[in-house]
Design a protein that fits this description.
Strand content: under 5%
Radius of gyration: 26 Å
Shape: elongated
Number of domains: 1
Order of helices and strands: HHHHHHHHH
Number of helices: 9
Distance between the termini: 81 Å
Helix content: over 70%
Structural class: mainly alpha
Number of strands: 0
């Protein structure tokens, strides 16, 4: 007796991509920037004001930049796919036999032949919408485009959330303790994002988490070192 098998496929891959892109960039870029600024100013002065102002500026400019960047990129892809769809529609209308032959060749390449081949070709070409979608996917590797606005909004708010995580502890105004809390929260979130992104990469969760922690550690070390050097440089200037 055959056992029922459930197949797992990723649904909403583009949405997950936008969320990870925004969270990852907002978290790492803001975290590393604040670490450098904190090392250059917070340790010597104990005042969080400069760090907070820098973080807010990074949050606002970064989220707008990422949202607009995602929109422009997705819009270009959207327009390209729509243009290809329009072109294929015209070709189906003007050259139906040639386009029908293309469908037949693609079905042949899939291993179909004889009556089964003809049946599949007839079924596909009997509906123009099905015909168009088949050519888009099989010939061009394209699918119906998604609304670029939604992806841009997802990226924008994901960046904001990512940036707030390393920034929020500095509002406590506890000097170096704020930096330590911010670092703990940021590294924890990096591990979570790394584990979450394995939903689309197929990696084991622990590998994704470790990978992000390594990236965060390198970024932290570089930013902190540069911040200390700048503090020393400004003190002696």
């Amino acid at each position: 007796m055959m056992k029922n098998r459930e197949e797992e496929h990723i649904i909403g891959g583009n949405k997950i991509r936008s969320i990870i892109l925004g969270l990852n960039d907002g978290l790492i870029s803001t975290f590393t920037l604040l670490v450098g600024v904190a090392a250059a100013t917070l340790i010597s002065t104990g005042n969080n004001a400069i760090v907070i102002l820098t973080g807010i500026a990074a949050l606002v400019s970064g989220s707008i930049s990422m949202g607009l960047g995602e929109y422009i990129s997705s819009k270009s892809e959207y327009n390209y796919i729509k243009n290809e769809m329009k072109r294929e529609k015209i070709e189906i209308e003007l050259f139906p036999e040639e386009e029908r032959m293309e469908v037949r060749e693609m079905c042949k390449n899939m291993g179909l032949n004889g009556d089964i081949l003809e049946s599949c070709v007839n079924t596909i070409t009997s509906n123009k919408e099905t015909w168009l979608n088949f050519l888009l996917k099989s010939e061009l590797g394209l699918e119906e485009p998604k609304n670029p606005v939604f992806g841009a909004i997802l990226t924008f708010f994901s960046f904001v959330i990512g940036a707030i995580i390393p920034l929020s502890p500095y509002f406590l105004n506890m000097g170096i303790i704020s930096l330590i809390i911010s670092s703990i929260m940021s590294f924890s979130m990096l591990a979570i994002v790394g584990a979450f992104k394995t939903k689309i990469t197929g990696q084991p969760k622990y590998k994704g988490a470790i990978e992000m922690l390594i990236v965060g550690a390198i970024a932290f070390t570089c930013s902190y070192s540069i911040g200390l050097w700048l503090d020393l440089f400004m003190t002696n200037f």
